[in-house]
Write a structure and sequence with these properties.
Elements (H helix, E strand, L loop, with lengths): L1 H4 L3 H16 L4 H19 L8 H25 L30 H9 L2 H36 L3 H49 L3 H7 L7 H40 L3 E2 L3 E2 L3 H21 L1 H25 L1 H7 L2 H53 L5 H18 L1 H4 L1 H22 L6 E6 L5 E11 L6 E11 L3 E5 L6 H8 L6 E7 L3 E4 L8 E2 H6 L9 H10 L3 H4 L6 E2 L1 H4 L2 H15 L3 E5 L7 H12 L9 E5 L3 H4 L5 E6 L4 E4 L6
Parallel strand pairs: 3-7, 6-12, 6-13, 8-11, 11-12
Antiparallel strand pairs: 1-2, 4-5, 4-7, 9-10, 13-14
Helix pairs in contact: 5-7, 6-7, 7-9, 9-14, 9-16, 10-13, 10-14, 11-13, 11-16, 13-14, 19-22
This protein binds adenosine-5'-triphosphate.
Length: about 675
């Protein structure tokens, strides 16, 4: 079809071979023969045989030989090529336990909920309208080019030189319009792509970060893997593939609309020249394409799962590489390069295995698609030959019907032709849908009621806090109680693994398997043993989680001086670096306390937050916290630590874990 509608050089060459038959039907034979002769004599001289005198009968042995060779090649290849896999293909790769849509009826299930947030915006419809207008103009241009081509070839046949040059000038206008439209439709498509991607990325990031989902997802056994890949790679693929498939579908529908009337009007009323059935060509091509689509789905549907598995293993491999970058120092100190190399190579082997599955299923689909397209080529002849030989249609009508039938069938074949892309698309849609559903599900929310402290003399109260390990695991805390008075420094101690950090997580509302009531002041700050230090300026590292601009340089410098971060004072506040790598463990903990001074919390919860500091350093910090003006008046501090002897003197109360009751008890006393 494209040969007829594109006025470029190759189409003109192709048309010059096809046109004599197409344009004038049987009458063109002399032209063909004359033109043919010149070529044939040339071939005779070069190759030593006359192609025009050859018959199919003569060539039949060669056809058999080529077919036999193809068969032998296929058999031998199937028998031996797996030896070159260089991996153990008997091990079945895991393609993930997540939900996959595999029914033909549900191939597009879940697409609309993913697309909806973007298409609620007016700008999205603006882009779609612009692309649609350009597409419609392109269709009109196609029709104009068709008319131009007819006249052009008639002019050539009539050797009408005066008309020839104006016609060439006309085609330049058409070509210019085409060039401008195709360039801008691609450009607008790219604009749409980045807007759509940004909108979807912002939506997913919002969902992922809201209500601490990013943390709670980690605790779930069946949580979707690699959220980073879903937000970055899957969104990009989803947008690109949606646009590719959407454009293809719209083009197919447009071609159908433009050619369907022609097919219905010219279609012989007798099917196969025998049975009265108006419009039967349309039904026949619909049936043929429908059966082809169903067969393609049956042959290729496993590709959905395999594509899903490939995306999963690619993401896991990339995550493992990132792990090495994140833990470079530990790995270098352990000299564990060989272990890491074998771990990475082992991980990559899974990609190789899934790739081989993909190859095998793609080969099956390609076999079927090639078979389908080969039989499609003779399909119009099969349908129309009886009517033609019975004299019900002329040769000219036959060629017009071929053209209309091929275009209509091409439209119906959109599904089959796009099936490979569709399987990848389906896998991407599943990965994104599962991710969105997991983020939107509220099943893993903590049942701990967090309320604001009444104030007055009490800074925080924890009542009947029950904490268990995920998935109905061991109970860590049972009806635990704790009351912290304003201005009080409380020390909590318990054996390792008893659940101190989980207690804090439950208080913060992070732990899913927890219940109880927690009264906390509005400004509560948790400082863990290892604080997160974002990449960027030193000022941002210190002011985190607030923005760097929330504090003046002087305020930040004062906080640094109060924490004795003397070694950092030589650094410029706006110097950018990976501070988590540059700073020592002790410096990182001091930096976290600088955050406390800047954010001025009413309750400060410290989980082993001075573990990397020396004894003097730890005491210095607590003295500084106790100094008036460091924290707001009446601010309380709760410290979890194993350094009881060191820290007890700088705290007002000391509670210990009571293993029997699963709660806190006054050190040396009874349960609270
Ligand atoms: N995400 C998790 N999934 C399953 N079990 C967990 C998880 N996090 C912690 N645990 C388990 O919960 C128990 C308590 O852990 P927690 O970190 O609260 O102990 P801890 O008292 O703070 O220990 P330490 O003094 O060594 O820091 C441990 O047995 C730990 O293995």
């Amino acid at each position: 079809q494209s040969l007829k509608f594109h006025p470029n050089a190759s189409s003109l060459v192709a048309l010059s071979q096809a046109a004599p038959v197409n344009a004038t039907g049987g009458k063109a034979a002399p032209v063909n023969a004359t033109g043919g002769k010149a070529v044939q004599s040339g071939q005779e001289g070069t190759l030593g045989f006359d192609v025009s005198k050859m018959s199919v009968k003569q060539l039949e042995p060669y056809m058999w030989i080529i077919a036999a060779f193809a068969l032998a090649f296929a058999v031998l290849f199937e028998l031996f090529h797996r030896r070159f896999a260089q991996t153990d293909l008997s091990v079945q790769p895991d393609c993930g336990a997540e939900h996959h849509e595999q029914q033909i009826s549900s191939l597009f299930a879940g697409v609309w909920p993913l697309v909806k947030p973007f298409f609620r915006q007016n700008s999205a419809w603006g882009y779609v309208s612009a692309i649609s207008v350009i597409g419609t103009i392109n269709l009109v241009l196609g029709m104009l080019i068709m008319v131009w081509q007819k006249e052009f070839w008639d002019t050539i046949e009539q050797k009408n030189l005066p008309r020839f040059w104006p016609l060439l000038l006309d085609v330049m206008f058409l070509a210019f319009a085409r060039i401008v439209l195709s360039t801008y439709s691609e450009y607008i498509g790219m604009m749409l792509s980045i807007h759509w991607r940004r909108s979807m990325t912002q939506w997913l990031i919002g969902l992922w970060l809201q209500d601490k989902s990013f943390y709670r997802q980690q605790l779930k056994a069946d949580a979707p893997d690699n959220p980073d890949q879903r937000i970055q790679e899957d969104v990009r693929m989803f947008v690109e593939q949606s646009m590719m498939l959407g454009t293809g579908l719209v083009m197919a529908v447009a071609h159908l609309i433009s050619r369907l009337p022609m097919l219905l009007l010219l279609s012989p009323t007798y099917a196969f020249g025998q049975f009265y059935c108006p419009g039967w060509l349309l039904y026949a091509s619909l049936l043929y394409s429908g059966v082809g689509a169903i067969c393609a789905h049956q042959v290729g549907k496993k590709l959905i799962v395999v594509n899903f598995g490939l995306q999963k293993h690619e993401a896991s491999f990339r995550y493992d590489v990132v792990q090495i970058r994140d833990h470079a120092e530990s790995i270098a100190l352990y000299n564990s390069e060989a272990t890491e190399e074998s771990r990475l190579n082992g991980r990559f082997e899974w990609i190789v295995r899934v790739w081989w599955m993909l190859m095998s299923h793609t080969k099956r689909l390609s076999f079927f698609q090639s078979f389908y397209y080969q039989t499609s080529a003779i399909f119009p002849y099969l349908l129309l030959a009886p009517s033609y030989f019975k004299g019900q249609i002329t040769l000219g009508t036959l060629f017009m019907l071929f053209d209309a039938l091929a275009t209509v069938k091409g439209g119906f074949d959109w599904f089959l032709g796009s099936y490979s892309i569709l399987t990848g698309y389906r896998a991407t849609v599943d990965r994104l849908s599962n991710f969105v559903q997991a983020l939107e599900a509220q099943d893993s929310c903590s049942e701990v009621k967090r309320m604001q402290s009444p104030g007055d003399a009490v800074a925080a109260t924890i009542t009947e806090l029950n904490v268990a390990l995920p998935r109905k695991g061991r109970t860590l805390w049972k009806d635990a109680q704790l009351q912290i008075l304003c201005g009080e420094f409380v020390l909590l101690s318990a054996p390792e693994g008893s659940g101190k950090s989980c207690f804090f997580r439950a208080m913060a509302g992070l732990w899913p398997d927890a219940s109880g009531e927690v009264f906390l002041p509005e400004k509560t700050l948790f400082l863990p043993q290892k604080s997160y230090i974002p990449q960027g300026s030193l000022k941002q590292a210190i002011t985190y989680p607030a923005c760097a601009s929330s504090f003046s340089d002087e305020e930040v410098m004062t906080a640094m001086q109060a924490l004795g971060l003397a070694t950092l004072e030589g650094r410029k506040l706006h110097e950018e670096a990976d501070w988590a790598l540059l700073l020592s463990g002790g410096e990182q903990q001091r930096l976290a306390f600088a955050r406390a001074l800047l954010s001025q919390p009413e309750l400060l919860l410290l989980d082993e937050a001075t573990s990397a500091l020396s004894a003097e350093g730890s005491l210095e910090i607590f003295e500084m916290l106790r100094r008036p003006g460091s924290l707001p008046k009446g601010a309380a501090v709760v410290t979890v630590s194993h350094d009881i002897d060191l820290l007890k003197p700088v705290h007002d109360s000391h509670y210990v874990y009571d293993a029997e009751t699963g709660g806190w008890a006054v050190a040396g006393g009874n349960k609270i």
